[in-house]
Amino acid sequence: MKQLIVNVDDFGIHEAVNSAVEEGYRRGVVTSASLMAVGARFHQAVEIAKRCPGLGVGIHLSYTGERPAAPVAEIPSLVDRTGRLIEDHRRLCLGILRKHIPLQQVVRETEAQIQRVLDSGLRPTHVDSHRHLHLWPPLFRAIQPILQRYRLTALRWLNLPWFEYRRLSPRKLAYVLWSQRTKRWMDGVYRHPDHFIGLARSGNLDAGYVRAALRRLPAGVTELSLHPAVDQAAMERDYGFWKTAHGWPCRWLQEYHAVLDPDVKRVIDREGIELITYAQVE
């Protein structure tokens, strides 16, 4: 059996992303979205989630770039001079390794983000993170007690099929291989899909790539991660700096067209793929 979770990341970061989630759910193939508690349009995203009851909604832990959920006084090492979370995730990780950033501050921010989502009345189906930082072993070990305390037992895991590995940059490949070390702590404790696709072309997925990936979908549960938005110009204005800061392609509208593409739907039907959410992952 082939099952597929079509998940939108960064739900709540911008109204253009929020609209893409709702339209992708109602008219396309979106089944799930990861809610950014620190996103500027978090409350709008919560309202969308509540009027789309079949949409699976997870928590998109975010340690970079946005306004924190915890009071700044409690996490001073995580923020810049403007009070925003550090933009550069590499600087964050180096700070943790060099012990300039205490892990207890990361734990505090994690707890505050989870609590914000729970206080909204939503019941999260899973946990993942911005730039997949939850799978970085030092951070994963630190936040694991929080996840268990809140009984958040479904997580994203970067187990890529062979055709995704072929397209990875050396930097992404190194991170994926390092993230595999978290498996020893996940087994028997956390549920996760069997496979993950979308990393190799993150920010630059198109309908053709999605259709080709679906035709080669392995048996089991696969998560397809996308970053669609309905307004490319608005996203460029507010987050276009990600191109130079992180080397991310930023083709939000292209990914939006992919989740609405009728041929993508036809491939799903023809291949006998069942669309599900994280709530159905065993």
How does this model look, in words?
It is a single chain. By secondary structure, this protein is an alpha/beta fold. It has a single domain, classed as TIM Barrel (Alpha-Beta Barrel), CATH 3.20.20. The chain contains 13 helices and 7 strands. Strands 1, 2, 3, 4, 5, 6 and 7 form a 7-stranded parallel β-sheet that branches. The longest helix has 17 residues, at 103-119. It is globular, with a radius of gyration of 18 Å. The model has no long low-confidence stretch (mean pLDDT 96).
Summarize the structure.
This protein has 13 helices and seven strands. It has 282 residues and is α/β, with parallel strands linked by helices.
What is the element layout, followed by pairings?
Layout: E1 2-11, H1 15-27, E2 32-35, H2 42-50, E3 56-61, H3 89-97, H4 103-119, E4 127-129, H5 137-149, H6 162-165, H7 170-179, H8 183-186, E5 195-197, H9 207-215, E6 220-226, H10 232-239, H11 242-246, H12 252-260, H13 262-270, E7 274-275
Parallel strand pairs: 1-2, 1-6, 1-7, 2-3, 3-4, 5-6
Helix pairs in contact: 1-2, 1-12, 4-5, 9-13
